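User: I'm new to structure prediction. If I give you an amino acid sequence, what do you actually give back? Let's try with this one:
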Amino acid sequence: MGFDPRRWSSAAEPHRRQTVTSNVDALLAENDSLRRQVLQLKRQLDVLRQRQWTQSQSKQQQRSNPRRQEHGDTAPSVSSEQVERWGEALAKQQGWNALRLSELEHLIDALNRASFHPHLNLQQRLDRLMPGLGADLIAAMLKPITKKRCAVLAAFALYGIRSREWLDEDPQRVVFELKNRQRSSQKSRRTRSDQRASDRNNQSYGEGNKSTELSIIEALRVLGLKHGASQDSIKKSYRRLVKQHHPDLGGSADSFRKVNEAYQLLIMNA
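Assistant: Good question. You get back a string of structure tokens that encode the predicted 3D arrangement of the chain. For your 270 residues, that looks like this:
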């Protein structure tokens, strides 16, 4: 039947035992009251957690909205003052004179094409990494786009969300990296230009079809495919090799470029 604490007594003889009533009743009532208070506190805690989550989601949406600065909702992640200060710091570093505005613009395009999402521009890439960062950076760029400002853009294209750290702490390293990347970009463009000239010469001698066929064979070899591969097979192999050779994941930039070129050639001729 169970133990009723109200009938408990410490006396050994049955005729001396006294039932406990009032104290236990008060304790049980107090226990019920405490249980109700705990349930009420739990409900309040759930409401607070839900409210906190809603506010967090709202702030994230505001950061991803490029026009939030017009309404003054939150401070931008990059300001015009920062861009100008970074540009001035870069201009004082050794090797700055070797950088060229037009080459920096080409470098930004090349870095965008070599990224994990080659179809995105710099603003879209940065917004994917950190919502609102790309929009803030573009909004902070004063006109016209000078060499200093373009160098800051190139730094963001190169370092991504860590750009502010590098620009603040080691502008000399930034200039050094931009100079090396600029030189590599120049060589790459010259190589592609020489290849196009060679293709035009081959076509003028009636070897255009043969050259294209050899390029397709080479593209199939790069993607590890056989002649007559379907578009689905091409895309599947491309996605696998892009992840394997992407520079951001430790791969080779040259191999990554070859995979992209092979994919584009095969898709156009599939």
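You can read the tokens as a compact description of the fold. Here is one thing that stands out. Residues 27 and 33 are 10 Å apart (CA to CA).
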